[in-house]
């Protein structure tokens, strides 16, 4: 059975959430930054199969080099031309025991993706949407509000209305009314 744990849940530094997904294929979703993620990984598991990135902002990739050094793994991301990306992420990717659809969702950053497992109704949303119905910044380089709204709509149209869990790039995961959270984010992004 797939297990998902946020290794950055109690970190008091500028970092993204870092999800350790264990099962058939043990994967780190985003590597975070500015804390010793390797020690946290090593206290839980012996081997890691890959790092999968939702996007390549510094707070999501800052620890990639230390994870590479410690575990000798490749990093998968949407744009293989980015310095932190070894392999292109496209189609589906196995995280734990489940296959996740890779959904290109730019607007916050051009290489942003969400990962969705229809079989378990679990979504890794990166910085597209957050708990409470907020949404990712569009004032950074490559940010674009209209594109972000289109990406939120694409996510909403892809996920199941009974979405079980929405794991976001910052803040708490959403396990109650997760679909409504995506709907609220789309509404809020249209108003800004």
TrEMBL record:
InterPro entries: MBL_Glyoxalase_II (IPR051453), Metallo-B-lactamas (IPR001279), RibonucZ/Hydroxyglut_hydro (IPR036866). Pfam families: Lactamase_B. Keywords: Hydrolase, Metal-binding, Zinc. Its cofactor is Zn(2+). GO terms for molecular function: hydrolase activity; metal ion binding. Residues 15-170 form the Metallo-beta-lactamase domain. This is MBL fold metallo-hydrolase. It comes from Haloplanus ruber. The lineage of its organism: Archaea, Methanobacteriati, Methanobacteriota, Stenosarchaea group, Halobacteria.
